[in-house]
Each structure stands twice: as C-alpha cells, then as structure tokens.
C-alpha cells in the first residue's frame, strides 16, 4: 500500500489545533471537553471521507468501521489537562492513514478507533476499560473527576449511535510515542512493545481539624497537609525492600480544604498511583500504602479513608502481531529498533481482554511527555507509520484482506 506521509502529517497538525494550548505544540483536550468533542467530530468526518462507517458508543469511544472482519488500529484523542500533541493522537491519525491507503490498494480491511478518556479524567483508561468489560458502565458512571463532576454527567455531551461488537475485529495494533528517554538516547527509530506495566490508583483522604492559622499552637494542630507530607516522606523508606529500579509511584494531585493561607487545612484528598510490571509487587505496595496512611493518621489524631482502588494488570503483547511489527521494523529501520516494555499505560491493555494486541513506539524528544513540550521528529513519525503499514500488509493473508 502507498501511504501518504504529507496527508498524515497534515491531519496530525489539524488535530493539534483542537484545544491548542498556545505553548509550543501542546494541547488541552481532556475527555468530554468542548475541544475533545470538536476534535472527535472532525475525526468522524475524516473517517467518513475514508469510506468508514462512523459509530460512537455510550462512553464516547469513536469507531470508523470497515465492512466485514477487519484489523482495528488506533489509540485515543483526549489529552491530559496539560498534554502533548502526539500522545494518543498519533495512533489515531496513523490508523486513519493506513485505513485509507489499504482501502485504496485493495489491502486488508482496517477499522479505526479513538478511545475516550484514556488519560483518566475519571478513572484509568476509562473508555476502553468499559468497552472491554473490565469496568461496567454503571460503575464508571459513578466515577468523579477532581472537580466532583460525575462521568454520567460528562458523557451526556456525546450522542451514542450504539454499542460496537468486538467480534468483528481480528486484532488491535496501537502506535504511540514512547513517552520516555530510551529510544531517543539510543538514537533508535522504533520500539516494538513486549509488555505493558500494571497500575494501581486510588484517592486517599486525611481528615483532621480545620482551625485558625494564627492562634492554634503547633503541637495541638491536626493539620491534614502535614499528614500528607509525613506520609510522602516515609513512603520511599517503607517501599525500599519491595520495589525495583523500574517501579514508580506518584502523588500527582493534592486538594486541601479549604485551601486558604490563614486556615490550618482540615482535610486533604490526594491521588496515590503506583506502577510495576509485577502484579504481586503492586499488591505488596498497596498493603504498605494502607498501613502507612493509617499509622500517620493515628499518630496525629486524624481519620484516614481510601477511595475505590482502580487498576489494570500487566499484560504481554500477542506473539504473532508483535512478530509482524518486528519484521516490518527490520525492513523499514534495519538494526535501528528494539523490543522494549511500556512503562506508560495504553488502551491496548484493556483491548487485550478481547483480541490479540500489539504496540509500536517512536522516540520522544528528550523523553518528555504529559507536558506541552512533548514532541517527535517528523521523520520518526513517518517511519513509525511505515512500520505500522508494513505490519498490516504483511498480515494480509491471515486477515483475509
Ligand atoms: C497514560 O497516559 C498513562 O498515564 O500512562
Ligand atoms: Mn496515550
Ligand atoms: Mn497519556
């Protein structure tokens, strides 16, 4: 098939214009925001123009469907609150280009997807989690974002055309930026993913006593922020004999009540997230987190409570699809590619419950992502597209295309 690199890059830049942050090529396009919905409307038009049948399910996952059995390609087009232009968008636009080119060449049938809320405004990869059956729609609807908006309310902005039967897809391939420094530092062009790490994520709340910041002596304060601070300080030590150099944990969101300079905070709610390739290690870390939070609360005369534990298990990529990507990578970028794990989460983890999945990466300049500075050389974007297209055409007989 003949892919059109110019058309692919033009589409990618057009998608960036929805929710453009004005800082570099950054975007602000959280799930169900005005910019996200407008971007999906535009994507739907592009899918239609490519001869695909457009459908949107209850979660707002957007599909461009080929007739009959097809391979599914794609990723997500929502962004972090401060996101880069390629995280997710690259996989969706690459899928669109391969679908167009394959159709024109009489190649395998290719369908395209942009999953909703991969970036977890409400949960963890919420759109594909619901589509795959990992999370029920009823459970998902109860999830709240940091401003207390429920998913049930947020998703009303998108009209559903019906649910999409996964049985029509023979497999799923997600192209993505690496979002880490490995390929960039090694001056390599492509990463073929071996497996994706697991994740756990939950909100923790410390309840102390709101009080006057001028009159309350330090030794009688029950300051909820001090509890968060003590918890964070001790966590690394408590994890010391459990974690490996690739284990990561993050407190990325803290909300203090009432969040005023002259008030000792009575309540602190914070996000606690941890990731590793070993599910048992994730469980051990959970036990440490709960015990430490309880210990800190008790020592300070406070209450602690834990929100719903969200998570995804580590998952290995399908050998056959991965092999197709490896063969294609070796043809397009001989000796300039590697097999590597993914430390970032992807919709592919959920889709693996339904069908064989595989992923490929292109380098991230400086290893930066989830930031406006996120970028990749355009030559590398096109190299990734060629590897994806090569893998899809290489699988032609098996796909019945
Ligand atoms: C997905 O964006 C992640 O948080 O890894
Ligand atoms: Mn992503
Ligand atoms: Mn992301």
Can you describe what's shown?
This protein has 401 residues and is an alpha+beta fold. 35% of the residues lie in helices and 22% in strands. It has 13 helices and 17 strands. It has helices at residues 5-16, 34-49, 89-104, 126-131, 137-141, 151-154, 182-186, 224-239, 279-299, 319-332, 347-351, 378-394, 396-399, and strands spanning 53-56, 62-65, 70-76, 110-115, 169-177, 190-196, 198-207, 211-212, 248-250, 254-257, 263-264, 267-276, 303-306, 310-312, 315-316, 337-342, 357-362. The strands form 3 sheets. Strands 1, 2, 3, 4, 5, 6, 15, 16 and 17 form a 9-stranded mixed sheet that branches. Strands 7, 9, 10, 12, 13 and 14 form a 6-stranded antiparallel sheet that branches. A hairpin with a 5-residue loop joins strand 1 (53-56) and strand 2. Helix 3 (89-104) crosses helix 12 (378-394). The radius of gyration is 22 Å and the shape is globular. The model is unreliable at 397-401 (pLDDT under 50). Bound molecules: glyoxylic acid and manganese (II) ion (2 copies).
